[in-house]
Amino acid sequence: MKKSTLLTAGLFACLINLHAQTKNYRTLQVPGRDQYARIAEGATSVLPSGRWLRPAGQMIRITHDPFGMAVSPDGKKVVTLHNGVFSIIDIATLGALRVPSYDGKISSPLSNGSFLGVAFSSNSKTVYLSGGDNGAVIVYDIQSLQRLDSISLNGIVNGEEYHDSFTSDLVLSSDGKELLVLDRGNFRMVRINVQTKQISSSIKVGRQPFGLSLSPDGKKAFVANVGMYEYPLVEGMDSSNMNQMMINWHPYGDNTPESIQGTVIDGKKVPGVGSPLHPDAMSVFTIDLATNKVINKFKTGHQIGQMIEDAEVVGGASPNSIAVSKKFAYVSNATNDNISVIDYHSGKIVRHIQVKVDPLIDKYRGLLPFGLTLSRDEKTLYV
Fold first, then answer.
1. Contact yes or no for 251/243 (Cβ under 8 A)
2. Which residues of the chain fall below pLDDT 50?
3. What pLDDT score does 131 carry?
4. φ and ψ at residue 257, rounded to 5 degrees
5. In this predicted model, what pLDDT tens digit does every residue of 31-55 receive, in sequence order?
6. How confident is the model at residue 20, as a pLDDT?
């Protein structure tokens, strides 16, 4: 009897002690955590992550993975560019036409994939599409569903020969007379005369140029470069001895003396890639279109080696997309979860806007802001 009483008293004391130590923790959970992923037109869709998706307006189903999008000047059509495919959407009916069509009746004008660049001409029926790995701009008539032309970025410009071009973002000048196109394969911006379909100039930009935008007055171009390094070949390597000159492992660690200055492996000299803080690495360039000169190089976001929230920055900011007002250029830095604000008249970065969700998780990175646009009155930035 005494043992039983003592045991009960001890258990009761334990429960009281455990209750006294109980703490409440606030958690964040996705609303669809106990739901299967589903697409519900006109209702709430559930993403594989458990997040809910409720379109603010009408929803239309199109081919997966749209990279780029443009609205026609007359406001009647939208073109979205996917991987080797594009969709033509009629805004009035919300009907979508896939090019190429699944039945094969409409052929594809894209010979080797595509990327994110798409722009309409002023007539609202001709579109310019980034050909991606084929190194060309595809000119296409969305009414007749016919390819009109293909403008290659390869060739000789000002005495220098370019090959292996990769067509990235592109924009059409406000007067419709010129295309500005990024070539990721050769780290440059190309200017193309729309009427003659000839390249008028080639301007070297930063590493892995990705995003392109023009100032409202058309006098300046802004290029976001997402790459950190420009990788050189092993010394002495060419197409005839490529297999013999290969090395069997990665030559150096990141941001080490060997990666900066170069090293030797199995008697083969491997040039260095330089500092990850090089002005061309993960940067934004401003180009004066009157002179074709780069007039500013901005290092947006947090820089490697900086201490942010008691942690050292070890990767770059990955500036990717740009929206430009009459005074400011806004740049999304994917791996920093922030937006850089550049006063391009004074040539200074004046602010960084952190993209925030909730204080409980804001210190963690991973929102990856990508894609920007400004409202017409320049008072609202959509990220």
1. no
2. 1, 6
3. 94
4. -55, -35
5. 999 999 999 988 999 999 999 999 8
6. 59
Give the amino acid at 368. L
Q: Any idea what the Cα angle at residue 90 is, between residues 86 and 95, rounded to 5°?
A: 80
Among the listed residues 160, 150, 159, the one whose alpha carbon sits nearest the alpha carbon of residue 181: 150
Measured distance CA(342)–CA(350) in Å, rounded: 6
Residue whose token pair is 């295309």: 179
- CB contact at 8 A, 150 and 130: no
Distances (CA, A) of 267 to 54, 242, 247: 60, 15, 10
Phi and psi at residue 6, to the nearest 5°: -65, -40
Nearest to 45 by CA among 61, 29, 26: 61
Instruction: Report whether 179 contacts 135 (CB < 8 A).
Output: no
The CATH number of 63-235+282-382, from 2.130.10.10, 2.170.130.30, 2.115.10.20, 3.30.390.10, is 2.130.10.10
Question: What is the rounded distance in angstroms from the CA atom of residue 186 to the CA atom of residue 117?
Answer: 17
Which residues make beta-bridge pairs with 293? 288
In the chain, residues under CATH classification 2.130.10.10 are 63-235+282-382
- Burial class from Cβ neighbours inside 10 Å (0-12, 13-18, 19+) for residue 336 reads buried
Burial of 216-233, coded b for 16+ CB within 10 Å and e otherwise, reads eeeebbbbbbbbbbeeee
- Indicate the helix (H) or strand (E) that contains 96: strand 95-99
The H or E element that residue 9 is part of is helix 2-21
Distance separating alpha carbons of residues 174 and 129, to the nearest angstrom: 17
Contacts of 154-163 spanning 24+ positions with Cβ under 8 A: 155/199, 157/190, 157/199, 157/201, 157/202, 158/201, 158/202, 160/202, 162/186, 162/188, 162/202, 163/135
The two three-digit tokens of residue 211, written as one number: 């995003």
- The number of beta carbons lying within 10 Å of the beta carbon of residue 280 is 20
The b-or-e profile of 132-165 (16+ CB within 10 A means b, else e) is bbbbbbbbbebeebebeebbbbbeebeeeebeeb
pLDDT at res. 248: 87
Q: How far apart are CA 193 and CA 161, in angstroms?
A: 19
Amino acid at 379: K
